[in-house]
Structure formats: structure tokens, C-alpha cells
């Protein structure tokens, strides 16, 4: 159905100008420090996504503490999860200017601060600001760099690497659920959040491990890709040149020349003024630093702006737009069970079995195997990543629609296991995104996708709580979420077919001419 960008007839150049001259591969690509990047990303997923998947424990505590409606209380969890993903496009701007390492370390500090401040909450609205917004933004500043860095360091085993790193979500959901339950029982939810904030400072260590690749390393990666996909590069060369001409290389060159001239003049003044006073030298150095920072910010903003709004905007890729529409409906179907399953278990009077082995832990554990297995399958040469991605989505939406029909612990456990395995497609999302837009645009493109997922996560749990407040049942919440999810999958099925058809018709017309 679809395997990569050439199948849909769309180009978003990966530097196809790079020649096929053999270059000694960099040991840090697909090996060496790349596995440290996987470890860093794995720990980020444990501390961020895992803890967010365990928020059902705290949600129960907040309901008892503040005595608010389920719809209003669910906004605390959904704000944290939603904002983590919604800020993706703006975090892409930070990455363009500051790099992944600096962005992630800053985000780790902000996330820990959000958890610690939330321990002093006097009402739900206070948690909206401290936990929802502050911790959410901090999480987003760490999460996106963790995903992007894995994509940069891996070429041949991208799906496997992403699968291994994102299994941290499953491990984290299992570990953090047990940890938060224990901390809330022993110390209360306030001290539990304070301790979790201290644990979250380890995100700064994860960010420090994100050593950036040099431009030379990135060029070697592009060369390797060019060698393995030579036919594609030839087919896309004309459109790549057109895109680059639309972006306006000449103005960029002129701007770079102007920037270099400014910095050069500062250096000349600094050298010529060595005989001057120390104060004037300090002023010149300060001016030079500000000038360099200004140049960096302008370049980063120009790259970010051109990706979203320029002539080569990501939104000109119709399949990518369909991917965004899918993301708007998909993530809530995965998040709703984690937030509301503890309440459903209480309603069905199966708390005793759930205390022995929580349903959310079943999802988390099987989710680990799902990510790894789907990643391995997708890396097989005869298997299309896109087809594996679609099959997993079909399985997940079927489980979401089936879950309200199960009212026993065994039935719910089976459905939750299938939800956990099929949701392993999350490890394929960066791979599918990179196939659509290329490594060069991965940070911004994946930022858009997780932003759409964030919108889905933001409104999903409060919507489910609101439906419950009206009907006193969660059944309709799952049915409506499942149907909307199906609409997104249909968009994914239709748009590539239309794109292929248009590409064939265009090729036929050109052949006739």
C-alpha cells in the first residue's frame, strides 16, 4: 500500500544533491554513541510518558481531595498530557536555535518544578497551572528532543531503535503506577508529587547525554541514505531543486554574508582595540556574543518558519495532512482507558482482582512487547512499515469499541492486553513521519504530529468524564472516541490512494507529451 515517499509521489528532499561517492560510515550512526541516545530516550519515556500514563492514581486522589466533578478533575491530567504534545511545533523552534541537549535540560528543570509546586495545590485550578501547564511544557521540551535524536543517530535500524526507546512508556506506566500507589499510601499524594518532582530532575541527565551530531556526521548519514536509495534520489532531483529555488537560496546566502560581515567587523574592532581599556574590550566581547546569538536565532527561526509557512511548507504534503487529521482523533482512544479505568474497575466491583494485577499495568507491560515486536517486523525488508502501522490501528480501534461490552476482570484484561500490543504502533510514528518528510524536516514534522496528538489527549479524558456526568456510564465515551478514531484511519487509507492516482495520471500526461 505504502512504504515510503516515492510510493506516494511526494518529495521533501533529504539533500538529494549529495553524491554517491563512498564515504567511510561514521561509527556513531547505527552504533557507538547511538545506543546511549536510545538509553537516554528510553529513560525520558519512563519519566515523562510513563508517569503520565499513571495519572489515574492521582486522579482518584484529586477527586477525593477537592470533591469536584469527574469532567473538571480530568482536565488536570489531560492538560499535562496534551500540553506535552501540543507545544511540539514551538519546541521545534527551540531545537533549531539551541539544539536538543540545551532544550532537554531546560525542560527537565521545568518539569520537576511543576511536580514540586503541585504538591502545594489548594484547588483543582491551581493544578491546572502548576501541573497541567508548567510540568506539561517541561515534558514537551524533553520529549521531542528524545525522539528527534534517535532519528538522527539511526539509519538502518530506525524502527527497532525507536521501538526500544519508546518501550520506556510501557515500563514507566508499570513502574510509576506502582510507585505512585505506594507513595500515596505511605506519604499522601502531596508528598508523592514532591518526591516525583525530585525524581524528574534525572531528565536533566538524560538531556546531557544527547550529544549532537556534527554537520559532517549528518552529511555522511545523508550520503549513506543516498547510496541505498539511489533511484529515489534521481527521481526526486528536479522537484528538490524546485523546492530549494522556492525557498530562495540567494537571499539566504546574502543574509549569511551580511551576518558574517557584521561578526567580522566586530572581530576586527576587537583586534584593533587590544591597546584600549579593559572596559571597552569587555563591551566588544559582549557585543560580539549578542551578535552571534542574534544570528543563531534568526537562522533557527528562518528554518522553523519555512518548514511551516514557506513555499516548501509541510502542509503541502497531502498525505502528511491526512496523517495530522488521524492524529487529532487517535491518541484520546489510548489515553481515556488509562485515566478512567480505575473508576470503571470500581463501578464493576472488581477492585480486588485489579489490586492484584491492575488493568493499566497489563496495558503497560504488553505495550512494551508490542513496540519491540512491531519495530522488528517493520524493519524486515519485505514488510511495509505503513501497512504494519495501519493494521495496528485497526486492531486498536476494534478494542476501544469492544471494551464497554466487557464487564468481567478476565474480559477486560484480554481487551487491555490487545490495546497494549496494538498501541505499540507509537514506535513507528517517527519512522512513518520521516518517510513522509525526510530527516531534515523530522523535528518540525513530528512536532506537528505530536501537537495533534496533544489536542486529542487534551479533550479526550474531560470529554469522557463529561459524558459520564450526564449518563453515569463510560460506554458512550468509548463508542464516540472509537468512531472518531475510525474516521482518522479512513483518511489515512484514502489520501495515499488519491495521491498515487494523481501521480500516475501526471506521469501518463508527461509521457504523452
UniProtKB/TrEMBL annotation:
Keywords, alphabetical: Membrane, Transmembrane, Transmembrane helix
A Pfam short name: MFS_1
UniProt KW Cell cycle keyword: no
PROSITE patterns to which the protein is assigned, alphabetical: MFS
GO terms assigned for molecular function: monocarboxylic acid transmembrane transporter activity
SUPFAM superfamilies xref list: MFS general substrate transporter
Coiled coil regions, renumbered to chain: none
Source superkingdom: Eukaryota
Transmembrane regions: 33-55, 75-95, 102-120, 126-148, 160-180, 192-210, 319-341, 356-374, 386-406, 412-433, 445-464, 476-494
Places the protein is found: Membrane
4Fe-4S as UniProt keyword: no
Residue ranges of every copy of the Major facilitator superfamily (MFS) profile domain listed in the record: 37-500
GO CC terms in record: membrane
Membrane-topology descriptor: Multi-pass membrane protein
CDD domains: MFS_MCT14
Protein's recorded name: MOT14 protein
Lineage: Eukaryota, Metazoa, Chordata, Craniata, Vertebrata
Record gene name: Slc16a14
Amino acid at each position: 500500500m505504502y512504504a515510503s515517499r516515492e510510493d506516494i509521489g511526494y518529495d521533501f528532499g533529504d539533500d538529494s544533491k549529495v553524491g554517491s561517492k563512498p564515504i567511510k560510515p561514521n561509527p556513531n550512526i547505527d552504533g557507538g554513541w547511538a545506543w546511549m541516545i536510545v538509553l537516554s530516550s528510553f529513560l525520558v519515556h519512563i519519566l515523562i510518558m510513563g508517569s503520565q500514563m499513571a495519572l489515574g492514581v492521582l486522579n482518584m486522589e484529586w477527586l477525593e481531595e477537592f470533591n469536584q466533578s469527574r469532567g473538571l478533575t480530568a482536565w488536570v491530567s489531560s492538560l499535562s498530557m496534551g500540553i506535552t504534545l501540543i507545544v511540539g511545533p514551538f519546541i521545534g523552534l527551540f531545537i533549531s536555535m539551541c539544539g536538543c541537549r540545551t532544550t532537554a535540560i531546560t525542560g527537565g528543570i521545568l518539569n520537576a518544578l511543576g511536580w514540586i509546586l503541585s504538591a502545594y495545590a489548594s484547588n483543582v485550578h491551581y493544578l491546572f497551572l502548576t501541573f497541567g501547564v508548567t510540568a506539561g511544557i517541561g515534558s514537551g521540551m524533553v520529549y521531542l528532543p528524545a525522539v528527534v535524536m534517535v532519528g538522527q543517530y539511526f539509519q538502518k535500524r530506525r524502527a527497532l531503535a525507536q521501538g526500544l526507546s519508546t518501550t520506556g512508556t510501557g515500563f514507566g506506566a508499570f513502574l510509576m503506577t506502582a510507585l505512585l500507589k505506594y507513595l500515596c499510601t505511605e506519604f499522601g499524594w502531596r508528598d508523592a508529587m514532591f518526591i516525583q518532582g525530585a525524581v524528574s530532575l534525572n531528565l536533566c541527565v538524560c538531556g546531557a547525554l544527547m550529544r549532537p551530531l556534527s554537520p559532517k556526521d549528518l552529511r555522511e548519514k545523508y550520503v549513506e541514505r543516498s547510496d541505498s536509495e539511489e533511484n529515489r534520489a534521481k527521481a526526486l532531483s528536479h522537484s528538490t531543486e524546485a523546492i530549494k529555488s522556492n525557498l530562495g537560496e540567494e537571499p539566504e546566502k546574502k543574509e549569511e554574508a551580511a551576518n558574517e560581515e557584521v561578526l567580522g567587523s566586530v572581530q576586527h574592532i576587537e583586534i584593533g582595540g587590544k591597546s584600549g581599556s579593559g572596559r571597552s574590550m569587555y563591551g566588544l566581547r559582549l557585543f560580539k556574543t549578542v551578535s552571534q546569538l542574534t544570528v543563531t536565532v534568526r537562522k533557527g527561526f528562518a528554518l522553523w518558519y519555512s518548514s511551516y509557512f514557506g513555499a516548501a511548507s509541510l502542509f503541502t504534503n497531502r498525505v502528511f495532512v491526512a496523517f495530522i487529521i488521524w492524529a487529532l482523533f487517535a491518541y484520546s482512544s489510548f489515553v481515556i482507558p488509562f485515566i478512567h479505568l480505575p473508576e470503571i474497575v470500581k463501578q464493576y466491583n472488581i477492585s480486588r482482582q485489579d489490586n492484584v494485577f491492575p488493568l493499566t499495568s497489563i496495558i503497560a507491560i504488553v505495550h512494551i512487547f508490542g513496540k519491540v515486536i512491531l519495530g522488528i517486523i517493520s524493519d524486515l525488508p519485505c514488510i511495509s512499515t505503513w501497512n504494519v502501522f495501519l493494521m495496528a490501528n485497526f486492531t486498536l480501534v476494534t478494542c476501544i469499541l469492544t471494551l464497554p461490552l466487557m464487564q468481567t476482570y478476565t474480559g477486560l484484561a484480554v481487551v487491555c492486553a490487545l490495546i497494549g500490543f496494538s498501541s505499540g504502533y507509537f514506535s513507528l510514528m517517527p519512522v512513518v513521519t520521516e518517510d513522509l518528510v525526510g530527516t531534515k524536516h523530522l523535528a518540525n514534522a513530528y512536532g506537528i504530529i505530536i501537537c495533534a496528538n496533544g489536542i486529542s489527549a487534551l479533550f479526550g479524558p474531560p470529554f469522557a468524564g463529561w459524558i459520564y456526568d450526564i449518563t453515569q456510564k463510560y460506554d458512550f465515551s468509548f463508542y464516540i472516541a472509537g468512531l472518531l478514531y475510525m474516521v482518522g484511519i479512513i483518511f489515512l487509507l484514502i489520501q495515499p490512494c488519491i495521491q498515487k492516482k494523481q501521480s500516475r495520471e501526471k506521469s501518463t500526461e508527461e509521457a504523452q507529451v
